[in-house]
Amino acid sequence: MTHSTETREATRPGTPPHGPVRAGLAETVRFMATHTLPVFVRGVASPRPGVVALYSRVNQPGWSSATLRAMKTRHRGAPVMVRALSGEMLVLFDEEDIARFFAEPMDVLAMDAKDKADSLGVFEPTGVLCSHGRLREDRREVNDRALAAGQPLHPACAEYQGIVEEECRPLTAGTILDFPRLRAAVARIARRVALGDAAAEDEELWSWLMTLLGQANWMGRSRPQANRALYGRVEARLARYAAGAAPHTLVARALSAPSPEGTDPLGQIPHWLLATDVCATAIARTLLLLAAHPAEQAEARAEAVAGTRGLPRLRACVQESVRLYPIVPDLVRVTRAETEWRGVRYPAGTTVLVPIGFHQRDPERVPGGHLFAPARWLAPGADQDTRMAPFSQGAGRCPGDLLGLLLSSLVCAEVLRGNRLTGARPALDTGRPLPGIVDTAGIRLRLGRP
Ligand code: HEM
To answer: pTM here?
Structure first.
């Protein structure tokens, strides 16, 4: 099956007369050295804090975006075949190509590219992201049901708000809020939301998941047997919580309707727990950005104090923070059918990369791309704009986007309601383009009177 692009493609700039555009040797070495290798060294699944601190000192993302910009300019926006660590990949630069990447169905552009599935398979072997075909559809349905995908306010919003309020109380008791304390509070929120109050203290489950996440950096090639055994303990623990879970929990929602055999609803939970943990990173960066932008902070605080339903301004701040500092900077898919890009055919099995972290900061595409401007997310249709896609778009869009934004904005509101953020570390210079990376583990915020 060939998925042809429109005939006008042949006249688009950068369309090659014959065959694919391939990166030359120097370009390939540069791409590997500044883009692919640094991701591997940092950790594909779990960023290594020491490496992140080093990268932020040397502004590593700046090297990567300089490479991508040079490729985009040199090949006039055409898709470029380039060798990465484990084979070739087609890198997309053009806005129309990227829009199509999001529009293609999963049986053409599938989520479970080999390296990604090998890595995530360590902690979620039956997760939706590692699946394809009918099973993927069934698993996605469980995710959509539990996470209430597409519903602006999760049906269990009131219960989750109560959990966030309780867990955030100790955070704002002192004058300093640092990342380790924030992360610990979000981990408790994650366990209570996903599994129920009985799991609030379960540091052991958490440590198993963190071990597996660290192992995922080796893409399943290190200690496979030990990892499988540890995952077995995770499964057993999840089943225990599922047996007594209250109806508002994600696990109870997942099990609230029958699923076809093989779906494994409980197998979706490790992703939910770890993705909610990632919200701590997004929250810390949002608060850091607000500390550096007093006018935005004042507006966000006013919303928190007013308790505006759905906290739209704070949600926009979190969205802007994940645009600037994406959790998933590279979107990778694999083709399951022959595809055609700019008049060139590529066989099934081609890996396709959209470096969305680069694109959604590109000032040629996103005005003020390196600035913190949360109001851009309040414009109609911003959330569906394929130029900025921190949650991806289309059939592979994050089903937990609205839940993640809900929990993150609620935590930010709890911190801001009675406090003014001052004296944040690391210091951000708002007179210049924002740095491409911040050392999140080192974030420390001073809380003062509003
Ligand atoms: C700031 C928070 C979050 C960000 C920025 C984010 C971003 C993303 C992105 C970009 C993807 C697509 C990955 C890819 O194409 O490889 C994704 C997938 C996914 N996310 Fe999130 N996510 C967040 C929070 C959450 C939360 C809180 C949950 C659940 C509780 C969640 C559940 C999922 C699931 C299940 C998938 C796989 C979807 C599929 O394969 O169809 N995410 N997320």
So the answer is: 0.95
